[in-house]
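batch_manifest entry 22 of 60
target: DNA-binding NarL/FixJ family response regulator
source organism: Variovorax soli
requested by: lab member K.T.
priority: normal
notes from requester: please return tokens only, no post-processing; we will run our own comparison against the previous entry in this batch. if the run fails, retry once and flag.
--- input ---
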Amino acid sequence: MQTEGFEAETPSRWNVLVVEDDRNTRAFFEASVRRCPRLRWLDGLGTLREALAWLADADEIPDVLLADLGLPDGSGLDVIRAAVARFPECEPLVISVFGDEDNVLASIEAGAVGYIHKDAAPEDIAHTILEMKAGASPISPMIARRVLAKYRSLRLERRPAPAMAPEAPSLLSAREQEVLALIARGFSYAEIARLKSLSVHTVQTHIKNLYGKLAVHSKNEAVFEATRLGLLP
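--- output ---
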């Protein structure tokens, strides 16, 4: 699962922030994270208000956000949006009792890179986090099936307008198209830089430009929108 290059480029430990209103679940996540030498526990928060305040004043970057959607004072979707807006490299993972297509798709559009139903939550969440940081997108099988079914129905409903077809190839530059294709395949910024003989800063600039052209704010939104526009197969 890991390569020699991956070990050399990753930080010594990934910072983990958890937003979960159930204290027992939060403690379970904390224990798993603290047992893993490659992970570092940042904080555990129980409300939307606490999470937004933490993100606004944070002096440390969360590499991973574990987020529940059903918070007592709002939706975890707002936490995900706030996290990826301030920390673009933060990768949110939803762990929720909600398994309907609308919540799953909304989470992906907000920036989540994985979605696990609480009924199928792994015994060792630390292992799941490490897999995600290695490029995986953890998702519960029953949720994956629902998302695929929903996606198929959306593709049938959304017929691209003929007038839009000529514009799609020129929307992104050739280099932006290459970077987008690699993002869709799950490559990290550092891996893209190495494959294309570019600096990480240049890769980030291309990604920032294509975000602006696609009017999105995260990698998952970029892939979703580019697929909808026919820029990705």
